[in-house]
Amino acid sequence: MMGSEYSLIFDLSRYQELDNFALLARQDYNLGNKGGWLGHFRGGLYGFYARLTGVEIHYHQVHSWDLIASGRNPIHLAEYHLSSILFNMDSALECMVFALNALGYSVESTQFLDVAKENTLRQVTARNILGRRSDTSKGIVPGYGKYFPSLKSHWQENRSLIQTIEDHHSVSKHRQTVFTGGRKRDDPPPGLLRALGTGHDVAEITLMAPWAEVNLKQKPRTFAHRPEPIPNDGEIVNLEELAMRFCDFTNACSVKALEDAQTTIKLKRDKL
C-alpha cells in the first residue's frame, strides 16, 4: 500500500513467518535439508527483501525535494531512479520464485527445479508460475499448482502487472531510456530558496523540482517513434500506479504463500 510523502509500505511480517516455517521444515525430524534447500530459500527471500528496499529508496528519491540539492539534470535523475525501480521490482519477483522453488523442493523435489543443480537453478523465472508469454502451457513448473495454488492464482490474476514490469525493465536494461516525462511537484518546502543560497529563483526551482507523477510508455517494446496509444481501461499509465499495485501485490503474495505452505506442506512436528 501507499504511505505518505511518496513512500511505499511493504509488509514483511508474513514473509518472516514463512521463514520461520521453512526453518521448522528444515529440521531433521521434518523434511531435512536435502540439496541444501534452506540456504537457497533464504538466499532468495533475503534477496527479495533487499530488492524491496531498493524499490522503496528509489521511489522515494524520484519524488523527493532532496533531489534538487544535487544539481544534476532532473531528467537524468528520473531515468536513473525509474530504471532502478524497475530492476528491483523485476528482480524481487524472481527472488520470490527462487525462494518458493526451494521450499517446494524440500517436500517434493520432482515437482520443482532441482536446487542441487546450477544449470537447473538458472531456469528460475516468473515463467515457472505463469508459463511462457507465447504459450502459457509451456515453461510451467507443476509444483506451484499443487503446493502454492492460491499464490499461483494471484499471479495469474496480476499477469498484466508482471508483464508491465518485465517489459519496462527489459527495455531500460537492454535498449534505451524509459522515462517519457510527467508532472512536477509544486509544493516546495518552506525556506528552500534560502537553503539553496543565492543564484536560484522560482523558475529554476520549477525546472529542478522532483516529480509528482512519472509517465510510463504504453508499448515499451515498440522502438519506433510513434504517438503513444490512448490507454485502455485498467492499463498502468504511470509509475505511481505501478508502484501501488506492485506493493499491494507483493503484500498479498506473503499472505497467500504462507497460507499455502501451512496447508499443503505437512510436517511431523509443528514446533522447533
Q: How many E-type strands?
A: 2
Put simply, the count of helices is 11
Mean pLDDT: 86
Record the strand order, biggest sheet. 1-2
Q: What's the structural domain tally? A: 1
Task: Give the percentage of residues in beta strands.
Answer: under 5%
Q: Report the end-to-end length measured between terminal Cα atoms.
A: 33 Å
Largest sheet: 2 strands, antiparallel
- Approximately how much helix is present in the residues? 55-70%
Counting helices, strands and paired strands, the structural category is mainly alpha
Radius of gyration: 21 Å
Low-confidence spans:
none
Choose one word for the global shape: elongated
Topology pattern, helix = H, strand = E: HHHHHHHHEHHEH
